[in-house]
Amino acid sequence: MEAPSMGLVIAMGLGTVFVGLICIIIICTVMGRIIRLFEKPAPKTAPAVSPEPEQPKESPEPIENKGELIAVIAAVIAEQMGESVEAVRISSIRRTS
């Protein structure tokens, strides 16, 4: 008996893999549709509309140890960048929240 050719073995292997992947896709699609049948729909609510625009908040509290804060921020940035602290220059700091 003659051994199958290398091309036939490769084609059968690739065909088996693609047929298996297609079966997995079909099974996942069917399972997703079955799950959606039993899922309760979420209640639809209108987004809340504020009648007045937000008032600007009071000015933030002054920072007591600004030099210490800048040193800590510079150290964290330098650590994340993998550089020395001397390579980091902070030009300004502003509060975001």
Question: How would you describe this protein?
Answer:
- The protein has 97 residues and is mostly helical.
- The chain has 2 domains: 1-40; 63-97.
- The chain is built from 2 helices and no strands.
- It has helices spanning 6-38, 66-81.
- The termini are far apart.
Gist of the model:
The chain is mainly α and 97 residues long.
What key phrases describe this protein's structure?
97 residues, mainly alpha, 2 domains, 2 helices, flat
Estimated radius of gyration: 31 Å
Q: How many strands, which pairing sense, and closed or not: the largest β-sheet?
A: none
Percent strand equals under 5%
Q: How many structural units, i.e. domains? A: 2
Which spans have pLDDT < 50 for at least 5 consecutive residues? none
Terminal residue distance:
79 Å
Average residue pLDDT = 84
Give the helices and strands as they follow along the chain. HH
Count of separate DSSP helical elements:
2
